[in-house]
């Protein structure tokens, strides 16, 4: 079996994907047209030409603009369904999907419109494609903690459909500690918690995510490598990092995939996983992330299998389900 055949054959879980970041230009045009919303592009080539980023913020500006065309429940359904079809093609059998309610509610779209559309697609993914999923509601960290509290309040009627809360958007200048109280409240209510930390931000932000927010997983976390004590802590706690290689390359977190630290982190015993983050913007879904690092870093078959196994170890699924998928992985030669 070639490396790419192995990657294709392995069952995988995706734990770091923003549903708004799966918005392919073709679907964006179709939804813009049916909703009568103008977009600042004439055609698909113009869209793709605009996707040149030099840091996180330059991406976020374009990402939030793209989300503006999403208005109806059907739009959120179509967005998520298109993503699930990509999962099926990549043998992603379980996915934990971020959505950013504030990106939509701040434009006057009801919370119910967003979550009902996404949930209907999750239900169909289970019944038609056999893909299980969870939703993770992410707070936008460039907005206030008060706004995050208001969003948490809006989510309460849907709590059974939301496994965790997260923290995303512009990292620098918005440390995890800014959201200490709202995360404490979310934990008290029974939500699991995750946070983007150590993508562009320093190791101190990863410490805060661990010690102040008390996260169950760190999203990105690649800058943790700069702090030896933090590395020891992540390893001792078996703290998952949801790493997104193509994202890191496109947002200039790394300059060259051959320099990406995911293999070093793996070798040191950090529980790293491979994820797509915003695949419509960064050039590929889960398997493209795997194949790109496998080639650039010369990953061994065992390392590739370990990364797939880590995705289930790190998922918010039952011990029985973890065991089942780990056995499936072990059975692949
Ligand atoms: N990579 C990323 N970092 C922070 N916020 C995001 N929102 C969508 N993608 C993101
Ligand atoms: Zn992300």
TrEMBL record:
Tell me the Gene3D superfamilies matching this sequence.
Metal-dependent hydrolases
Alphabetized PANTHER family for the sequence: ADENINE DEAMINASE (PTHR43114)
The record's listing under NCBIfam families reads: aden_deam (TIGR01430), PRK09358.1-6 (NF006850)
Under what name is this protein listed?
Answer: Adenine deaminase
Q: Where does substrate bind?
A: 278
User: What is the species of this protein?
Assistant: Vitreoscilla massiliensis
Q: Which GO terms describe its molecular function?
A: hydrolase activity
**SUPFAM superfamilies, alphabetized:** Metallo-dependent hydrolases (SSF51556)
Tell me its EC number(s), please.
3.5.4.2
* Sequence ranges assigned to domain Adenosine deaminase in this UniProt record: 11-330
Q: Which family does the record claim for this protein? A: Belongs to the metallo-dependent hydrolases superfamily. Adenosine and AMP deaminases family. Adenine deaminase type 2 subfamily.
Catalytic center residues: 199 (proton donor)
For binding Zn(2+), which residues are annotated in this chain's numbering?
A: 16, 18, 196, 277
Q: Which UniProt keywords apply?
A: Hydrolase, Metal-binding, Nucleotide metabolism, Zinc
Q: Which cofactor does it need?
A: Zn(2+)
Q: Which reaction does it catalyse?
A: adenine + H2O + H(+) = hypoxanthine + NH4(+)
The entry's function note states: Catalyzes the hydrolytic deamination of adenine to hypoxanthine. Plays an important role in the purine salvage pathway and in nitrogen catabolism.
| Cofactor: how bound | Binds 1 zinc ion per subunit.
* Site note Important for catalytic activity, residues: 220
């Amino acid at each position: 079996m070639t490396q790419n055949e192995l990657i294709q054959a392995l069952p995988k879980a995706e734990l770091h994907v923003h549903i708004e970041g799966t918005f392919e230009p073709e679907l964006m045009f179709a939804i813009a047209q049916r909703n009568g919303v103008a977009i600042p592009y004439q055609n698909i080539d113009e869209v793709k030409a605009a996707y040149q980023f030099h840091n996180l913020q330059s991406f976020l500006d374009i990402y939030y603009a793209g989300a503006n065309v999403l208005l109806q429940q059907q739009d959120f359904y179509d967005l998520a369904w298109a993503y699930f079809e990509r999962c099926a093609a990549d043998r992603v059998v379980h996915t934990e999907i971020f959505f950013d309610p504030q990106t939509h509610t701040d434009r006057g779209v009801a919370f119910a419109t967003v979550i009902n559309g996404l949930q209907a697609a999750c239900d169909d993914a289970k019944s038609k494609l056999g893909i299980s999923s969870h939703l993770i509601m992410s707070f936008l960290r460039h907005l206030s903690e008060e706004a995050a509290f208001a969003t948490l309040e809006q989510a309460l009627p849907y709590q059974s459909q939301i496994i965790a809360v997260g923290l995303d958007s512009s990292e620098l200048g918005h440390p995890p500690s800014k959201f200490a109280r709202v995360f404490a409240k979310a934990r008290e209510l029974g939500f699991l918690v995750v946070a983007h930390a150590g993508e562009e931000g320093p190791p101190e932000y990863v410490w805060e995510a661990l010690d102040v927010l008390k996260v169950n997983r760190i999203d990105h976390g690649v800058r943790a490598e700069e702090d030896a004590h933090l590395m020891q802590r992540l390893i001792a706690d078996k703290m998952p990092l949801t790493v997104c290689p193509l994202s890191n390359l496109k947002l200039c977190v790394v300059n060259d995939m051959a320099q990406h630290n995911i293999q070093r982190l793996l070798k040191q015993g950090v529980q790293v996983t491979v994820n797509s983050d915003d695949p419509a913007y960064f050039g590929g879904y889960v398997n493209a992330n795997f194949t790109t690092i496998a080639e650039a870093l010369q990953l061994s078959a065992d390392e590739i299998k370990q990364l797939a196994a880590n995705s289930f170890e790190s998922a918010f699924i039952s011990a029985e389900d973890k065991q089942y998928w780990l056995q499936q992985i072990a059975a692949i030669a």
